[in-house]
Amino acid sequence: MPATEGSNGGYEVKETLKAHSILWNHALSFIKSMCLKCAVELRIPDAILSNGMAATVSELSAALSIPPCKTRRLRILLRLLSREGVFESHVNLSGEEAFGLTPVSRLLTSADHRPSASPFILMLLDHHLVDPCQQLSRWFHLADAATTPFEMTHGKTFWDLAGDRPEFNDLFNKGMASDSGFVMDVVTHIGSSAFRGITTLVDVGGGTGKTVAALVEAFPELRCTVFDLPHVVNTAPKIPGVEFVGGDMFVEVPRADAALLKWILHDWSDEDCVKILQCCKGAIPTREKGGKVIIIDIVVGAGASTQASVETQLLFDLEMMILTTGKERDEGEWRKLFVAAGYNNYKITPSIGLRSIIEVYP
Ligand SMILES: C[S@@+](CC[C@H](N)C(=O)[O-])C[C@H]1O[C@@H](n2cnc3c(N)ncnc32)[C@H](O)[C@@H]1O
After folding, report:
1. Sequence ranges of the chain with CATH classification 1.10.10.10
2. 3.90.1150.10, 3.30.565.10, 1.10.10.10, 3.40.50.300: which CATH number matches 10-106?
3. Which of 91, 110, 258, 294 is placed for a possible disulfide with 116 were both Cys, Cβ 3.0 to 4.6 Å?
4. Which UniProt keywords apply (predicted)?
5. Cα 24 from chain centroid?
């Protein structure tokens, strides 16, 4: 019997149609990520900024050299991204639809006072990182915990591929440097006590040295070493007073009062994290002599106060599963690592949005 409006059958049809639309939204959500990537590649945030914080589609098309036959298509992209909060849309004094920056797209500008997040977004949405997502169901059937979807796709681990392909190495290092600029901007603004009073620091897996560059600026008396794989430190720009050392953090870490691990341990399995933490312990003095490890990473459940931030932590957990053998950890999981590596105490400060500073004492 056909369902009529108001009957229970009609209610079920409405619920089914709502569910159907939600399903379509989930299936098409990757387009949002790709539109964001496109906006960054076209440098739309910078074009809006240069136009005085808002621009019509015609102004943007002219500024970005987009041919008139694509102007209507550009509007569609801007409307989707405005709905998602990346831009905002309004009617300007001439009665035309104009698009402006929001706090989200301000992060993507390179002319703003903060380091631009654009290189990090381009790195996250690069095909090397996106393609492995296609392997997930095949990966779940694979009875081998050590092979990642990334390795199934590229035939190599993330770090080996970066060592082999200079353009991927460059894209990744620029992405990480952009994130380090952002994080250290927050750390120096909030005046974190974690770095105060330290004389020497080794940034383990420190990339091209962006974190350390901000640290020596904030704490001029601090002497720093950047320690990373040879293919990374060999391409790093020189920073006055900073030593760059190539090596393997699973073998030996250069000695210092404090060892920094920013966004390192979430790349690795528990077993590997214990080895890295033990190598760091071998590089620092006792707690009484000022020894400590400073970790900057997600602590699941800490710092995530909204529905959206809980979702971001979950997404990062999946990202780590796809790209590496690592994962995001809650406090209990972190504690187990510290105990297994022989540390005595730790302090968590959830001060960098979704990420925390964890000070770990030998
Ligand atoms: C996610 S990145 C973090 C970079 C930097 N700490 C930051 O947050 O910008 C991980 C870093 O670990 C480095 N790495 C990977 N394996 C390593 C190893 N065995 N020894 C030293 N560094 C390593 C990578 O080259 C990369 O620079």
Report:
1. 10-106
2. 1.10.10.10
3. 110
4. Methyltransferase, S-adenosyl-L-methionine, Transferase
5. 27
Ligand 1 pocket, CB under 6 A: 159, 176, 179-180, 205-207, 211, 228-229, 232, 248-250, 262-264, 267
In Å, how far from its chain's centre is CA 227? 20
Out of 124, 150, 159, give the residue to mutate to test ligand 1, the one with the largest number of ligand atoms within 8 Å of its CB: 159
- What pTM, to 2 d.p., does this model score? 0.91
Per-residue pLDDT of 142-197, as tens digits, reads 998 889 999 999 999 999 999 999 999 999 999 999 999 889 888 888 877 899 88
CA distance 335 to 73: 51
Burial pattern 74-90, b for ≥16 Cβ within 10 A else e, equals bbebbebbbeeebbeee
Assigned superfamily of 118-361: Vaccinia Virus protein VP39 (3.40.50.150)
